């Protein structure tokens, strides 16, 4: 593991205004309109879009196709500084990198880039903090500070793509292939910015990054109205439902939003997403010793999921619980985990156990807390 400090920048006090408007907040037509409003030729917006989304550049010195006397003005107009990396930590021989970002108003968020042999995935944040209050999650225990803007969300991905393309991550130059909204925050609680980001990530360059929607995963604890809204968007992202318990009594404790949207309502909304989009849903299930890992709960989980048919609409992703400060919960015994898998598979439920990356740098699932640099 290696830790590196990056230079701090001065920022306005928290809560002062909104993030400045950025090229990534707008579609291509909106950028061209903004250029004209600023007294600039509309085609300059497209040139800047090529730099940002295709060449992954935001340094005016590298934009040699722009007039030298206009570069600073164009960059200030369309690519204002939104966030600054203030600490990076590495694990897995440098192939896992967690970045702590300071946003324009001083709020802190984290993202994690993970390079595997066959893909590179960035786990990004959609809120500074989280208001869902799940007691086993470090982010949830910190509370919600504010929503992130579309551009703040997208910029995490652009930087990760730049790090891959430049060969900065061990393994040589490569391509960022996957994005998961599993960092800080509940993406569905910041729905407008979430969908703006999804569109920027999946739109062909130079309007966006041109990623496959099938390689973008949106995770939610189960905001049923928003799942229904996502179902109608026509963008086939992968939906991941953080269920963590198959019964309302326990889920009310582990995932407090369950007191508003029951297990049955939540799973039905997820099933309908799979039915409409033809995209298999991932059920996220953090395994907690003696809490939700009993064999009978595996049977109940399978029965709940099979209640909507056995056509393979769902995949269960078991997550060994990662340690967080002060938590009373611990990871399941490996034997109990194996039995849980066996029982799910015996009832025809596709199941895997997640390969945990970044645990030693507090970069794994449920560990992101954006601790400030001392």
UniProtKB/TrEMBL annotation:
[4Fe-4S] cluster binds at residues 130, 134, 137. Its EC number is 2.1.1.192. This is Probable dual-specificity RNA methyltransferase RlmN. One of its GO terms (biological process) is rRNA base methylation. Residues 1-21 are annotated as: Disordered. Reaction proceeds by a ping-pong mechanism involving intermediate methylation of a conserved cysteine residue. Its cofactor is [4Fe-4S] cluster. Keywords: 4Fe-4S, Cytoplasm, Disulfide bond, Iron, Iron-sulfur, Metal-binding, Methyltransferase, rRNA processing, S-adenosyl-L-methionine, Transferase, tRNA processing. Belongs to the radical SAM superfamily. RlmN family. It comes from Nocardioides luteus. PROSITE patterns: RADICAL_SAM (PS51918). It is an enzyme of class 2 (transferase). Specifically methylates position 2 of adenine 2503 in 23S rRNA and position 2 of adenine 37 in tRNAs. It catalyses: adenosine(2503) in 23S rRNA + 2 reduced [2Fe-2S]-[ferredoxin] + 2 S-adenosyl-L-methionine = 2-methyladenosine(2503) in 23S rRNA + 5'-deoxyadenosine + L-methionine + 2 oxidized [2Fe-2S]-[ferredoxin] + S-adenosyl-L-homocysteine; adenosine(37) in tRNA + 2 reduced [2Fe-2S]-[ferredoxin] + 2 S-adenosyl-L-methionine = 2-methyladenosine(37) in tRNA + 5'-deoxyadenosine + L-methionine + 2 oxidized [2Fe-2S]-[ferredoxin] + S-adenosyl-L-homocysteine. SUPFAM superfamilies: Radical SAM enzymes. Coiled coil: none annotated. One of its GO terms (molecular function) is 4 iron, 4 sulfur cluster binding.
